[in-house]
Amino acid sequence: xxKADNKAMAGGATRLVSHLARALREKENLxxxxxxxxxxxxxxxxxxxxxxxxxxxxxMLVKLEETLGAGLGVFEEARExxxxxxxxxxxxxxxxxxxxxVTLSMFETQVISGLFQTDAYARALITGGFPxxxxxxxxxxxxxxxxxxxxxxxxxxxxxxxxxxxxALRRGIGSPTIMAEQYQHLxxxxxxxxVTVQVLPLDCGFSGEHAGARGGMTLIETPKHDRLxxxxxxxxxxxxxxxxxxxxxxxxxxxxxxxAMGRRNSLAFIEKLAGERQ
Length: 278
Known about the structure:
This protein is an alpha/beta fold. It is 52% helix and 13% strand. The chain has 13 helices and six strands. Helix 3 (32-39) packs across helix 4 (43-50).
């Protein structure tokens, strides 16, 4: 692919970083190889960044700030926006909302929520998906997904709730070892004071009710206390702001919560699954 094509296809933040990095490198009379040596990368990696053949990693942006940033904070500021461009287009608007959420309430039916995934689980899931992605794109998506976990430690604290269908917990992704690590990670997150994890059992429908039969959803409360509903299916997404519709989804979510195991029983159930994988 020609350099011009790379530039045209890259996002605005990636193009800006590539331009600034090249301009500042040349101002310092550094070759791509010399800059790469300072940052711990090859000259080819610097070339790929400057031509937008490969977006800079979060680590590269940190090192560019330290080496070329001149205290301006430009590369530091670019980290969030370059990271955002690595998400699939349909997810980018929600990623910004998630980052600043006051409360986040999720119901997942197929796989463990991306916010709760380990690096290995996410990589196995993305690698095994369709369409088939390049190794470079897989790594970009994994890096972007792992960056989302900053929400767990953000100040002010966010209240995060996840209801997992038992099928999502039992579905094997990657390998038994990856699943064992994923269960342990889920257990550690579930023990946090600002996090609640519940399990919707497979046999909940035997009671005559199964409010989660229509699929997963995410409810979000913004810093301005607006309430939104978000859903994904087959690579498409829907963000809903109409109060009456969001209210209907909130009521359905509340019903799903009542049909799920309690917090303590859910944690014990996940611990049992983790023991079975060892």
